[in-house]
Design brief:
Layout lengths: L1 H12 L4 E6 L3 E6 L2 H14 L5 E7 L7 E7 L3 H21 L2 H9 L9 H9 L6 E6 L7 E6 L2 H22 L10
Antiparallel strand pairs: 1-2, 2-4, 3-4, 5-6
Helix pairs in contact: 1-3, 2-3, 3-4
């Protein structure tokens, strides 16, 4: 178990602004003074909490209450703990090699095939683009109470975009949907 923790300590030490304070078989305590580094580490560890036994804790520094220290705690026993440590180490190592969380995910998973991308993922990706106004409207299982909208841009442009989209949908429906009158109206 010490080999896995030693490798994790080595990987953490390579991040900019991270200093490992101490470690044990079940935890690693470190400080981080670079916000972007902390955000990268935190986001990945929090994302892995559901699939591993790793927990991310924040404590006040014992010598200086103004400072905080961070701790990765690995619960469980034996192979489960070993697997969790190696998964966290692998993900953090990918971030180091790629330079950012997003590039690390693209390296690990590849550029996503749009057939496998959820609408929420599309919206998140589109919101990162500059000079792009978009609106996505969707509903699940044809329930009117289950309608969601995601958008980004100038509110005036968004409302215009939605209105134009509605107009286009009405034109399409007029051309492609065949309505039949009930027999008693004929």
């Amino acid at each position: 178990m010490n080999d896995e923790i030693s490798l994790l300590v080595e990987v953490l030490s390579n991040f900019e602004g991270v200093s490992v304070l101490n470690s044990d078989d079940t935890w690693v305590t470190f400080r981080c003074v670079v916000e972007s580094t902390l955000a990268s580490i935190t986001s990945q560890v929090v994302e892995l909490q559901d699939s591993t036994t790793c927990k991310f804790m924040i404590y006040p520094h014992p010598d200086d209450p103004e400072q905080v220290i961070y701790q990765l705690i690995f619960e469980g026993e034996g192979e489960e703990k070993r697997r969790s440590i190696s998964v966290v180490t692998k993900v953090l190592k990918n971030i180091l090699e790629s330079g950012s969380v997003q590039r690390a995910k693209h390296k690990e998973l590849g550029i996503p095939d749009l057939s496998l991308v959820t609408l929420r993922q599309m919206a998140v990706e589109l919101k990162q683009r500059e000079n792009l106004c978009f609106a996505l409207v969707w509903m699940e299982q044809s329930e009117r109470d289950n309608i969601a909208i995601e958008g980004s841009g100038n509110p005036t442009q968004l409302v215009g975009l939605l209105a134009r989209g509605l107009n286009m949908a009405i034109d399409w429906a007029d051309k492609n949907i065949k309505f039949r009158r009930p027999k008693d109206e004929e």
